[in-house]
Amino acid sequence: MADVISIAVALTLAFAVGYGLRVEQERARRKAGR
Fold first, then answer.
1. Pick from 16, 28, 30, 34: CA 20 to 30 A from residue 2's CA?
2. In Å, how far are 13, 17, 18, 22, 32 from 27, measured between CA atoms?
3. Is the pLDDT of residue 1 over 90?
């Protein structure tokens, strides 16, 4: 069961990092477009 929990945590962290990078790219693109 510990494996399932660690996998879920890893997926959550990966999703959070990917979302953060996407937000940063969008913010940079908006700033450059201005």
1. 16
2. 21, 15, 14, 9, 9
3. no
Please report, for residues 1, 6, 11, 12, the alpha-carbon distance to residue 16 in angstroms, rounded to integers and kept in the order given. 23, 15, 9, 6
- Mean pLDDT over all residues of the chain? 94
Tell me the CA distances in angstroms from 12 to 2, 7, 16, one per residue in order. Answer: 15, 9, 6
> Where does the pLDDT of residue 34 fall: very low under 50, low under 70, confident under 90, or very high at 90 and above?
confident
